[in-house]
UniProtKB/TrEMBL annotation:
Its EC number is 3.5.4.4. Belongs to the metallo-dependent hydrolases superfamily. Adenosine and AMP deaminases family. The keyword Hydrolase applies. InterPro entries: A_deaminase_dom (IPR001365), Ado/ade_deaminase (IPR006330), Metal_Hydrolase (IPR032466). This is adenosine deaminase.
Length: 381
């Protein structure tokens, strides 16, 4: 995409357009100033006490190429999210920040089991977050804005609480919870280990998205679809490893542009043909090494190496997400600008990603239709 006034104006144009966010972690999206304030209140030591310096530190860690450094931030964010009041505040600000970035529908994911260190029960934690989400939406409405937010409850793969978290999600399904997720270390903790939990979800008709194709490869994606009955794939990026380039040639009709013929493996073909939605987080995928297989040997990964455009061109159902706004130092608008500048997308393509995400959301049909009208009207205008 090109504009006459440059990327700053493009950013502002896209910021004002309605967007959809499906993959955004609550504990990865705190305001730096809030983290500093809450840490001081409980005596938790941070690597930096100036909010701007703290944000820079987290971005540097994220860009270091070290997953360990990337994850450092979460020890700090979860430490200050152990009381109902703090969870409520973080959730409220989370919504307000999304709305300021033009998001009108969001699913916020988080793991309640990680927020019980100061005596909260699982239900109390969920209720506190929902209260904050409601307050955030009300605050946005008072300024004549609109945002709808649902909770995705994540069970941590390395622990043994998946069935308990499923029951928690079911208890709150009519009180703000819209679905279930598993997160944490992907390799070594396949969805098949949690088959009973996924069976309960399917039996009770609560949808699931599964982190897969981020920290592990194609077989993890397969298991997410089979054992996890995943309606969506959290990231899903490494499904591209199941796509082979079989030949390439110069296309004379395209001024000598190289044209590639590809072959899809059975997992990639299933995901593409069934239009299983991929919750792609471009910057995070670069930072965490998810796209390592697509980076030329000896070179540093960049967004241009991401298979996002290949997946999109081949007809995969892709959406754009931030994953962890504080940790990665991104916004949804910024991710769209980066993709536009890297792959030459125009407004039509960027609008596609919003509709893809909305149609794959865990909202009801009527709500999706209403928000779809808002999105299409704004982007077409």
């Amino acid at each position: 995409m090109t504009t006459s006034t440059g990327s700053a104006d493009l950013h502002e144009q896209l910021r004002q357009l309605p967007k959809v966010s499906l993959h955004d972690h609550l504990d990865g999206g705190l305001r730096p100033s809030t983290l500093v304030e809450l840490a001081a209140e409980i005596g938790h030591e941070l690597p930096e006490t100036d909010p701007d310096a703290l944000a820079v530190r987290f971005r540097q860690n994220a860009n270091s190429g070290s997953l360990e450094k990337y994850l450092e931030a979460f020890a700090h964010t979860t430490a200050v999210m152990q009381t109902a009041a703090n969870l409520r505040r973080v959730a409220r600000e989370f919504v307000e920040d999304l709305a300021a970035d033009g998001v009108i529908y969001a699913e916020v994911r988080w793991a309640p089991e990680q927020h019980l260190q100061q005596g909260l029960t699982l239900d109390e934690a969920v209720e506190a977050v929902q209260a904050g989400l409601n307050e955030g939406a009300e605050s946005v409405a008072q300024k004549d804005g609109i945002i709808v937010v649902g909770q995705l409850l994540s069970a941590m793969r390395q622990s043994d609480h998946s069935e308990e978290i499923v029951e928690l999600a079911l208890r709150h399904r009519d009180k703000g919870v819209v679905g279930f997720d598993i997160a944490g270390p992907e390799a070594g903790f396949p969805p098949s280990k949690f088959a009973a939990a996924f069976t309960t979800l399917a039996t009770r008709m609560l949808p699931a998205t599964v982190h897969a194709g981020e920290g592990d490869g194609v077989e993890s994606v397969r298991d997410a679809l089979v054992s996890g009955r995943a309606q969506r794939l959290g990231h899903g990026t490494r499904v591209a490893e199941d796509i082979s380039v079989v030949e390439s040639e110069q296309d004379p009709a395209e001024d000598g542009e190289e044209v590639f013929q590809v072959e899809l493996g059975e997992v990639a073909r299933w995901v593409r043909d069934r239009q299983v939605h991929l919750e792609v987080s471009p910057t995070s995928n670069v930072q965490t090494g998810t796209i390592a297989a697509f980076v030329p040997e000896g070179e540093e990964a960049t967004l241009a190496d991401h298979p996002f455009d290949m997946l999109y061109q081949l007809g995969f159902n892709v959406g754009v997400n931030t994953d962890n706004r504080l940790v990665s130092g991104v916004t949804l608008t910024g991710e769209l600008v980066a993709l536009a500048e890297t792959f030459g997308y125009g407004l039509a393509e960027l609008a596609d990603f919003q509709i893809n995400a909305l149609e794959a959301s865990f909202l009801g049909y009527e709500e999706r239709e209403a928000l779809s009208g808002i999105i299409l009207e704004a982007w077409n205008a």
